[in-house]
Amino acid sequence: MRAFATGLLALLAMPAVALAVAVPDVSFEGIGGGPFPPADPNIDVSATQVVEMTNGGYAVFTKAGALIQRGTLGSIFAAAGDTPCSSEADGDPIVIHDRAADRWLLSFFSISSGTGSYQCIAVSQSPDATGPYHLYQYLLSSTRLHDYPKLVVWGDSYLLATFEFAVTGTGESAVGPALFAFDRTKLLAGDGGVAVPVPVPDSLRDVVLLPAHADEAVAAPPGEPAYVLGANDLRNRLEVLRVAVAWPAGTVTVSGPQRVPVPAFDGEICTNAFLHCVPQFGTTARLDSLSDRLLWRVQYRRRPDGAPTLVASHTVDANGQGRAGVRWYQLEPSGPSLRIVQSGTFAPNGTQRFMGSAAMNATGDIALGYSVAGSQVRPGIRYTGRLASDPPGTMPQGEGVILTGGGVQTRRFDEPGFTRSARWGDYSTTVIDPVDGCTFWHVNQFLRRSDAEPQTRIAAFRLAGCAPPPGPDVTPPSDPPVIAPILTPRRPGAYWFRFPGAADPSGIEGYSIVVDHVADTVPDATIDTRRSRSRQRLGRGTWYFHVRTLDRAGNWSATARTAGPFRLR
User: Fold this and answer.
1) Residue 333 belongs to what H/E stretch?
2) Exposure of 233 by Cβ count < 10 A (0-12 exposed, 13-18 middle, 19+ buried)?
3) Torsion over CA of 489, 494, 499 and 504, rounded to 10 degrees?
4) Taking the alpha carbons of 387, 389, 393, 394 in that order, is the dihedral positive or negative?
5) pTM
6) Which of 154, 328, 376, 436 has a Cα at 20 to 30 A from 211?
7) Using only C-alpha atoms, what is the Rg of the chain?
8) What is the pLDDT of residues 443-454, one digit of tens each?
9) CB 146 within 8 A of CB 85
10) What residues pair up with 561 in beta bridges, in sequence order?
């Protein structure tokens, strides 16, 4: 969020490339980005919910776009009392759906309290993003500012990348990238542990680093070191670190940087490096392309053949004359590092394309969502893509329009050294729907009218021909439809409980059963019986019978079926 070295018009706004891609299946208004740019919009998607975070707060939606819950960033930590994370929620938020655990992570920083740089991380206690959450507040430094934090899932760790600044009485000076690791098992269980610093080689002090996010139901191969990437435009390469963390000790091993040569690119869109470079219609004010770094997210997943692959993108000068385009990469492991499988730059005409985010679906198709602007175009949101069968290095599926913006950004920004508000977005997000493995979801910012508060738009689209591959059953089984225990004394204190069996396409593996004096008990994930009956020894008192179901795909029912009370004398 910080501004550091951080009729005819409608026709003109339309793309000059063929509109082969389908229109979005879903498109709805997200939440505002706060009173000052950039909005920092990002989303993630679970089986049933869409969660968005911006500098203006967070929101939980249904997949049809109905708002379920909304709040400020600080309200996430309201239960923690008066803390920097509740009272000084400064932004740069990130939301992640940990698919292997079916849990939500909401993260942002707090730096305005004057007592240090805090990272605030909330981990949901269930698959429901409306709460409750385990709340963690980490003091990363008492003397330095950790800006631009990006949190990802990798194996049994959560990894955080920041860019660090030294703070003095006269201002801030860049120190370089920083990395931290968190014990994922502990955070999921409610024990936050500590933020373990990860050493970064001095040779990367000018590179903004971004860890790869394991975007799958398996968080990453056990024991596989994480990939951490950065773009180095001075040498036309990607810098790659491998980071392994052994828990519970928190022992860190870092290798690299390995250098991955890529097709030549120019990261300076104009002479002002990455600020004030992207033109807008009807004004001389220009927007920030943020072309000095890889953009959110670096995605890690497996191709349909099972091979691991990574997808990344950033903004480059596409023609050497100041036209911003989206450079994208598909990479795969090669020894301890990575190699380029294919890459390309999407810049089909004179319109500027920037602030992109790329992702690959389950069939190997890749999509890009991004911002557009230009001397004849107000800032808007578009997308493109490629099928796995398309020629390498191309995005030939045409360009789709998510939204045509209604205004331009010229408003002054009240930070020293910035005469105009050049900041735009800071990041966008493209993610894959876990239900079908095909649908791409994208969020980005726009303006309804010139110099208005940044707004966001969330859209879902598919590329032609994607058929969901056969996948695991992730649907919880039903509970037994009716609980009608038959108490038949076989010997003193012993009773048989019989009930109709539950149903599931995968079949039923067994049941967890509890008989107790409590009306709302939910049995744990331990099989007590594989048949629809159970024998229990009971004494006098008032009893309740509870049963929970496990199917053969490993899914437990989320709730229990209960019968009772019944009394034994």
Assistant:
1) strand 324-334
2) buried
3) -160
4) negative
5) 0.79
6) 436
7) 26
8) 999 999 998 889
9) no
10) 547
- What separation in angstroms does the CA of 439 have from each of 65, 196, 295, 400? 15, 36, 21, 15
Separation CA 292–CA 159 (nearest Å): 21
C-alpha closest to that of 425 among 512, 494, 377, 353: 353
Q: Which of 16, 15, 54 is nearest to 34 (CA)?
A: 54
Residue type present at position 393: G
CB of 89 closer than 8 Å to CB of 73? yes
Q: Rounded CA gap, 100 and 398, in Å?
A: 34
pLDDT in tens, 522-554: 888 888 887 777 777 788 888 888 888 888 778
* DSSP E strand stretches across 335-390: 337-346, 352-360, 366-374, 377-386
pLDDT of residue 299: 97
Is the bond preceding 293 in cis, omega lying within 30 degrees of 0?
no
Sign of dihedral through CA atoms 212, 215, 218, 219? positive
**Strand bridging mode 298-302 / 210-214:** parallel
Residues 6+ apart with CB under 8 A from 9: 281, 378
**CA 442, CA 313: separation in Å to the nearest integer?**
14
What is the distance between the terminal CA atoms of the chain, rounded to a whole angstrom? 67
Question: Which of 94, 63, 83 has the alpha carbon at shortest distance from 1?
Answer: 94
Q: What is the pLDDT at residue 3?
A: 36
Amino acid at 197: P
C-alpha 488, offset from chain centre:
54
Tokens 């194996």 identify what position?
155
Q: What are phi and psi of 203, to 5 degrees?
A: -65, -15
Phi, psi of 84 (to 5 degrees): -55, -35
Residues, the chain: 569
| Residue ranges in the chain modelled with pLDDT below 70 | 1-20, 113-114, 169, 234, 272-275, 412-421, 468-472, 481-493
Both tokens assigned to 307? 């091979």
Taking the C-alpha atoms of residue 209 and residue 177, their distance in angstroms, rounded to an integer, is 6
Tokens of 335: 């020894």
Instruction: Name, in order, each residue with C-beta under 8 angstroms of 298's C-beta and a sequence gap of 6 or more.
Output: 210, 211, 212, 213, 227, 229, 310, 311, 312
DSSP 491: B
CB distance 398 to 21 below 8 Å: yes
Cα→Cα distances 469→98, 436, 472, 532, Å: 21, 8, 10, 34
Helix%, strand%, coil% for the chain, nearest 5 = 5, 45, 50
- Distances in Å between the Cα of 537 and the Cα atoms of 496, 531, 569 are 9, 18, 14
